[in-house]
User: Which sequence fits this backbone?
C-alpha cells in the first residue's frame, strides 16, 4: 500500500488580545477626573542651619561647616554674614566665600561679589576665586578680554578664564 499523502494541517492562530479586549465606551459628558492629594499630617520640618554652624564652629569638620554655612546664608544672609565677620575659623571658610561671591555676582552685584572675594585671606585662594568669578562673567558675556585686562589679569590668566576649565 502506498504511503498516505501528507496533509498540511492549518495552524491554529491565536487572535491578538486586543481583538477580544473589552474597551469601555468613551463618555464625553463626564468631567475629567481630579486627583486630590491629602495635606501632610505632620508639621514641615525646617533645619536650623544656624545651630548647625554654631555647633560645628569649635571643632567641626570644615566641609560640613561650609555646606551648612551656605544653606544658612540662603535662609538668613544678614545673620550668616555677621557670623562670618566674627568667627575664629575664618580661614576654613574659603570655599563658602568663593561660592557666595559667585552667587552674588550671578544676581548682578559684581562689586559686592568682588568684596567677598577680597575677604579671602590666602592670596592663592583669592586669586583662584577671582579667576572663577570672572570666568562666570565671561561665560555670560558680561565681560570681554578688554575688561579682563582692565581688571588686572595677565594674558595667562585670561587664557585660563577663557579656557573653560573653571566652573565648567
Assistant:
Amino acid at each position: 500500500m502506498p504511503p498516505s499523502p501528507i496533509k498540511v494541517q492549518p495552524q491554529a492562530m491565536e487572535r491578538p488580545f486586543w481583538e477580544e479586549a473589552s474597551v469601555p465606551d468613551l463618555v464625553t459628558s463626564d468631567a475629567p477626573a481630579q486627583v486630590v492629594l491629602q495635606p501632610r499630617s505632620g508639621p514641615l520640618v525646617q533645619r536650623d542651619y544656624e545651630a548647625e554652624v554654631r555647633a560645628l564652629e569649635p571643632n567641626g569638620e570644615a566641609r560640613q561647616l561650609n555646606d551648612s554655612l551656605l544653606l544658612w546664608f540662603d535662609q538668613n544672609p544678614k545673620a550668616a554674614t555677621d557670623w562670618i565677620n566674627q568667627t575664629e575659623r575664618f580661614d576654613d571658610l574659603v570655599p563658602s566665600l568663593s561660592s557666595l561671591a559667585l552667587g552674588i555676582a550671578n544676581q548682578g552685584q559684581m562689586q559686592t561679589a568682588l568684596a567677598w572675594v577680597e575677604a579671602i585671606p590666602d592670596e592663592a585662594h583669592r586669586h583662584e576665586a577671582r579667576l572663577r568669578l570672572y570666568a562666570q562673567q565671561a561665560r555670560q558675556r558680561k565681560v570681554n578680554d578688554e575688561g579682563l585686562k582692565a581688571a588686572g589679569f595677565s594674558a595667562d590668566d585670561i587664557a585660563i578664564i577663557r579656557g573653560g576649565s573653571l566652573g565648567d
